[in-house]
Hints:
The strands form two sheets. Strands 1, 2, 11, 12, 13, 14, 15, 16 and 17 form a nine-stranded mixed beta sheet that branches. This protein is of the alpha/beta class. The protein is built from eleven helices and 17 strands. It is about 25% helix and about 20% strand. It has helices at about 30-35, 45-60, 75-85, 95-105, 120-125, 140-150, 185-195, 215-230, 255-270, 285, 315-320; strands at about 15, 40-45, 65-70, 90, 110, 130-135, 160-165, 200-205, 240, 275-280, 290-300, 305, 325-330, 340-345, 355-365, 370-375, 395-400. It has two domains: about 15-45 and about 290-400, Lyase, Ornithine Decarboxylase, Chain A, domain 1 (Beta Barrel), CATH 2.40.37; about 45-285, Alpha-Beta Barrel (TIM Barrel). The termini are far apart.
Amino acid sequence: xxxxxxxxxxxxxxxxxxxxxxxxxxxxxxxxxxxxxxxxxxxxxxxxxxxxxxxxxxxxxxxxxxxxxxxxxxxxxxxxxxxxxxxxxxxxxxxxxxxxxxxxxxxxxxxxxxxxxxxxxxxxxxxxxxxxxxxxxxxxxxxxxxxxxxxxxxxxxxxxxxxxxxxxxxxxxxxxxxxxxxxxxxxxxxxxxxxxxxxxxxxxxxxxxxxxxxxxxxxxxxxxxxxxxxxxxxxxxxxxxxxxxxxxxxxxxxxxxxxxxxxxxxxxxxxxxxxxxxxxxxxxxxxxxxxxxxxxxxxxxxxxxxxxxxxxxxxxxxxxxxxxxxxxxxxxxxxxxxxxxxxxxxxxxxxxxxxxxxxxxxxxxxxxxxxxxxxxxxxxxxxxxxxxxxxxxxxxxxxxxxxxxxxxxxxxxxx
Length: 415
């Protein structure tokens, strides 16, 4: 008997509920709550919102769009992204690679984690047709080349795509990703020169940081990338400008998508490198508005509500990053007419860190048994759930609702 029990890290939630009246007709969140009266967290995916948003981004961006799978690997979400026209996927683990290849045999998969297990490199190359790998150090370059040169992995006349990840100065984003990954400019120049004769495709990549509200950050980063390419003195085929494109939250109203693409296009034109292709790796921007979670109030203590989900479930960003997600009361049997009042949430675990201060505006007469829909959770909602304290039960349903908040320029008009 094996002593190892595997737990899938990338996969669907425990239950996927279908209440379609007929094929392609989806219910609303209100209908679902009235029918199911859920006592466990219920994730409500909006495939129409996601596919429209993905299509809008693909139309606005002058290059290839790679969906960042880490943001939400739920199969229903991935299918909606595909329906929106995305054919490239940014994967950070072999589990993500396996998932995308299983769902979309014809997808282009790019392994964009700068530090990879040797076994993951081999499997991605041999079994899943992955040809592009990112790196930010000489050690990772040596590792990739060594694993791809082994007798069982060698493919004659095939060279990998090698992408050098560049560290950036602080941009003011909600999360600075250059603290963990990225080569400093001089190192990036050295790596470009070393990788060029070994690469079938050579790229320079960067990430301005997650939920970056400043379009100028991309212009500055592209200008820096151009300086590095010129200093390296070698041909670079692709400039990957990463993700970080923001979406709206209750206290965040980012500029429209066009403001970002205008800065990107202007910076690219200023490079005067017509043979250089552009890639982007949006995650939150494609799916942020495409899901919500319905929770139930289990107790009220003053202006703090004990709910059945929390920072160890779908609401990690409401705790660690203090994001204020949009909320609305869903109530059966009583009118809702009390003025809005600011509330905080306690999650279901016994950990006192399981708190989300908000404030979240809800009717002042909210009580035990009421449901709350918490929106803008398409990004990092389902995928950050844990089994801590045994509160790992949740369900998922696809619904027809619009996003609870819409970010200008990301949603296409319906009809």
